[in-house]
Structure to design on (1020 residues):
């Protein structure tokens, strides 16, 4: 669904979100279908081998905790996507990308909560991190969104790396990475203690626990649906899920209980305290979410059965009321244009259904009966009153939860009052503002008539234009699809509270897996108990804090706030940037020879020295098999020495090319025609590309003749050559097992259906390596193009018919250069005209006329006309014969690339467009897509991915055609190589030509390099 989201949006617009909602809804339906069996202890499990050699597997399992999380992730996700269909404007940009990422995030959460393999869980964990980064930064043009997204990914990625360390330690100590097996038989020891700390660090980063809580309020820069899903029911719940998942195994350890209590109680208090002084409705909910997450982590991580039951109930209740409240804020914002509770008044009367949803959700959040939040809060208080730990610890935890709950009541009531109440002082300010509007109109009329302007009463109101209160009369009702998702979630909080015994039956099986404590209960009315007394105290003190909200705000403002986490984070990042800049200034000097020299020196001084000291050397070495090898090696050595001593760049490039051709000769002499052909083709293309690049570089490496540096380069080159030759002699003797390449001939013929071992290795045996390599080629081509193009890179193809005429006396590209042969050509034309003959001008290349006459070579054009099509035919031959003879898609692509280079060199950039009128990105993308698609054929036929499959097709008159699927993989490689060469020619060739020509004009302005080409006419 995520892959098809952009296409759905392009067809259906924002209504496509209704279709996308089916994806998470299916997860919720699946969880509901298993409800009875999960209650009975039946846990569905699916295991598929992924990488058997490494013991990696795709293991999924759904127990009670996974069932609950899957229901929340799927149900809330579906409602949020429905909400999106009305939230965004029909003309909003980026909806396809947003829908795809949000749907993919829901899928990653489904995988995370059902994974039964710790490494697989980590993969889904990091996927949620990446997707949340994209969602938080959806408004990429806003600095606040970019900063919030970067902050979130830095914090959660750091926590994820810590979690990975813990996962690896647990897997190694326990002898398995299966999550259910680790929980059933948890390993112990000092290393496991370190693993516990790492796991809790990862959970703290995701669940926004102190001191890493600051990223969540900043993430409110994201669209409201993102806040409702990620920060109420999904992403932050991943941290809670991790704590709840490992609590049955390790909650009885001292380090676990200490960390959970300190972080849980601290986060509960800090978040609630900060929420009391916020004026943005989303920030009130954001800090409230931080506080609630601290409470939930405390309950599910405390280690007792009753607290665990209350924590699981709170997970469900929090997802419902907090997602509903975030959606309500979106409705209020859309209807009024602000989230500032100081400017809002009368919203409840204008939006009654929205106020109803907000009221129910707020009541559930602060713990009023009969709502899910009240049932969970009562169970939590009852559990803490009968704690299993030391008395002073139980007292500290209970006091912390009671005080934090008081804060929750205060900011919860303040939220509802700020969003929906009719405030008298704000209403009076609205009246004064309206009076200002009327007086301002009178002022304009009076000014038009030349009268004196009266004073503006709005100046006495004390409001700036951006701070003006909202007029309730101007609040407009919102679509039903924007209101009903929030109302549905709020009503679900009411419905679930009316049947608390059903929730207890569902959640108790997982709570019973905790090590200590008596079972808890979920009830709507337990009588007059100490927990009820605490609830009354919490509600009363919370109401007083709201009543004295102005005094509370003044009191908070008078206190020393201490170092804020957000500012501390920014200060640390600035210092880190400064340290990185200092280190970079020392180590990264901007000299590529220095970097390469440092790497080579370490190679010689490290592994090279160890090889000479302790390496095992062969007893006898045969120098050569035939004299031709000596000649090839001599050519390589001479070219290498001269290249190392060369000062001219072009000379060095040519000498390096000679050394490369010498290596190709060695391959051929050793019976490897495939390697020799590929080496020759690669060297040819590399030589041309380097020459194209050299046009924009100085002719010399240095203006100073540094003789000493040349000797240093020569000495280092000789040392590296000797070391590499030593590796070639000693490494094979260090082998302790038979090389896998011994089986390549048989594997290539039996499973790859080919006799060319090299080609079959590329497209079958080592196809994953080839897949990675062509992906790197695609990225490299994109990078080169983005660095070279001054204009926006688009699908424009330079065709001869699109060239504009300059109208100058000397037509053609590069016409500004001196033309010593112009007089001679004019003389020939004049003589032919005097004789009464029409000058004959043959067209050898389609766009040859676009070049200035002095840039054209008739001989080169004729040779190109003759060779181009022959080279294309030869490339096709190599492509189809490469499976059983020398060739293949890579070599064929290089041959086509050379043919395109010849056309470009003979006719210029417009001739390149005529030779290949296709965008290189299309070739690159099609090639990669074709390779991936062919790889899936083997999977559909019951084999491994990218494993070749033979297909025999009987055709009339032709007979049986034997096809191997790897041929199409080879075609994909062919297209990628051709696209790469074409992209290089368009960037390092055509684009640099255009830039150089524009800059060479005497009258060139600073923007002329971005203008279209101008060429003259000419006779065809």
């Amino acid at each position: 669904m995520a892959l098809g989201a952009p296409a759905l949006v392009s067809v259906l617009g924002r209504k496509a979100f209704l279709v996308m909602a089916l994806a998470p809804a299916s997860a919720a339906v699946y969880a509901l279908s298993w409800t009875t069996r999960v209650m009975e202890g039946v846990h569905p499990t699916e295991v598929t081998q992924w990488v058997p050699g490494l013991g990696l597997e795709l293991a999924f399992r759904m127990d009670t905790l996974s069932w609950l999380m899957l229901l929340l992730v799927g149900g809330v996700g579906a409602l949020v996507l429905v909400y999106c269909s009305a939230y965004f404007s029909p003309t909003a940009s980026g909806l396809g990308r947003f829908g795809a990422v949000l749907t993919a995030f829901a899928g990653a959460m489904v995988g995370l909560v059902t994974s039964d393999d710790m490494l697989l869980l980590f993969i889904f964990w990091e996927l949620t991190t990446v997707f949340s980064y994209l969602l938080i930064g959806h408004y990429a043009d806003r600095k606040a969104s970019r900063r919030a997204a970067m902050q979130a990914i830095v914090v959660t990625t750091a926590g994820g790396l810590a979690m990975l360390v813990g996962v690896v330690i647990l897997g190694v100590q326990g002898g398995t990475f299966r999550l259910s097996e680790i929980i059933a038989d948890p390993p112990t020891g000092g290393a496991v203690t370190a693993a516990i700390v790492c796991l809790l660090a990862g959970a703290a980063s995701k669940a926004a626990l102190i001191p890493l809580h600051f990223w969540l309020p900043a993430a409110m820069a994201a669209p409201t649906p993102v806040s409702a899903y990620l920060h109420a029911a999904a992403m932050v719940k991943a941290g809670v899920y991790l704590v709840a998942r490992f609590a049955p195994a390790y909650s009885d350890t001292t380090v676990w209980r200490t960390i959970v209590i300190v972080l849980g109680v601290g986060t509960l208090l800090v978040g609630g305290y900060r929420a009391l002084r916020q004026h943005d409705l989303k920030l009130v909910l954001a800090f409230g979410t931080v506080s609630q997450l601290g409470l939930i982590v405390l309950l599910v991580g405390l280690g007792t059965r009753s607290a665990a039951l209350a924590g699981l109930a709170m997970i469900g209740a929090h997802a419902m009321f907090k997602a509903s409240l975030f959606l309500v804020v979106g409705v209020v914002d859309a209807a009024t244009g602000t989230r500032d509770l100081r400017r809002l008044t009368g919203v409840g009367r204008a939006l009654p259904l929205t106020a109803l949803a907000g009221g129910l959700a707020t009541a559930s959040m602060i713990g009023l009966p009969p709502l899910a939040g009240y049932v969970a809060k009562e169970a939590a208080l009852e559990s803490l009153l009968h704690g299993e730990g030391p008395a002073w610890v139980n007292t500290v935890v209970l006091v912390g939860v009671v005080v934090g709950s008081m804060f929750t009541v205060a900011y919860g009531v303040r939220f509802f009052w700020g969003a929906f109440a009719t405030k008298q002082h704000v209403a009076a300010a609205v009246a004064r503002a309206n009076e200002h509007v009327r007086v301002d109109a009178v002022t304009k009329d009076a000014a038009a008539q030349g009268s004196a302007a009266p004073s503006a009463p709005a100046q006495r109101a004390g409001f700036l234009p951006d701070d003006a209160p909202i007029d309730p009369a101007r609040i407009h009702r919102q679509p039903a699809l924007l209101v009903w998702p929030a109302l549905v979630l709020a009503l679900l909080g009411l419905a679930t509270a009316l049947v608390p015994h059903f929730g207890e039956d569902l959640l108790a099986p997982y709570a019973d897996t905790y090590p200590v404590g008596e079972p808890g209960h979920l009830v709507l009315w337990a009588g007059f108990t100490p927990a009820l007394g605490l609830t009354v105290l919490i509600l009363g003190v919370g109401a007083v804090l709201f009543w004295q909200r102005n005094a509370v705000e003044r009191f908070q403002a008078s206190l020393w706030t201490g170092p804020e986490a957000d500012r501390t984070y920014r200060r640390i990042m600035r210092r880190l940037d400064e340290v990185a800049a200092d280190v970079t200034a020392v180590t990264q000097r901007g000299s590529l020879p220095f970097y390469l020299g440092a790497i080579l020196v370490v190679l010689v001084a490290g592994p090279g020295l160890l090889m000479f000291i302790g390496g095992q050397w062969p007893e006898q070495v045969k120098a050569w098999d035939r004299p031709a090898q000596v000649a090839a090696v001599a050519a390589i050595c001479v070219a290498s020495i001269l290249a190392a001593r060369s000062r001219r760049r072009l000379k060095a490039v040519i000498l390096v090319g000679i050394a490369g051709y010498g290596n190709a000769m060695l391959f051929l002499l050793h019976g490897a025609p495939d390697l020799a052909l590929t080496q020759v083709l690669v060297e040819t293309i590399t030589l041309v590309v380097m020459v194209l690049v050299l046009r924009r570089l100085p002719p010399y490496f240095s203006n100073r003749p540094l003789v000493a540096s040349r000797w240093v380069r020569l000495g280092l080159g000789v040392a590296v050559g000797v070391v590499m030759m030593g590796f070639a002699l000693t490494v094979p003797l260090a082998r302790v097992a038979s090389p896998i390449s011994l089986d390549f001939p048989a594997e290539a013929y039996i499973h790859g259906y080919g006799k060319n071992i090299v080609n079959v290795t590329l497209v079958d045996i080592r196809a994953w390596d080839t897949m990675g390599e062509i992906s790197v080629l695609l990225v490299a081509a994109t990078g080169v193009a983005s660095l070279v193009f001054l204009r926006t890179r688009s699908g424009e193809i330079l065709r001869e018919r699109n060239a504009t005429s300059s109208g100058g006396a000397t037509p053609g590209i590069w016409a500004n250069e001196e033309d010593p042969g112009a007089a001679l050509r004019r003389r020939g034309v004049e003589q032919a005209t005097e004789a009464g003959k029409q000058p004959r001008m043959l067209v050898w290349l389609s766009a040859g006329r676009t070049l200035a006459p002095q840039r054209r070579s008739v001989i080169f054009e004729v040779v190109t006309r003759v060779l181009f099509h022959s080279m294309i035919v030869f490339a096709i031959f190599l492509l189809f014969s490469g499976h059983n003879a020398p060739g293949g898609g890579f070599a064929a692509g290089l041959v086509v690339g050379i043919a395109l280079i010849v056309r470009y060199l003979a006719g210029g950039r417009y001739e390149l467009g005529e030779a290949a009128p296709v965008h290189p990105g299309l070739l690159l993308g099609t090639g990669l897509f074709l390779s991936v698609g062919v790889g899936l054929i083997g999977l559909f036929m019951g084999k491994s991915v990218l494993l070749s499959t033979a297909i025999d097709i009987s055709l009339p008159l032709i007979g049986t055609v034997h096809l191997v699927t790897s041929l199409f993989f080879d075609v994909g490689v062919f297209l990628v190589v051709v696209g790469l060469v074409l992209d290089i020619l368009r960037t390092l060739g055509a684009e640099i030509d255009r830039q150089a020509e524009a800059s060479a004009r005497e009258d060139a302005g600073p923007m002329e390099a971005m203008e279209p080409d101008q060429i003259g006419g000419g006779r065809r």
Q: What stands out?
A: The beta strands are 45-51, 56-61, 804-805, 950-955, 959-964, 1014-1015.
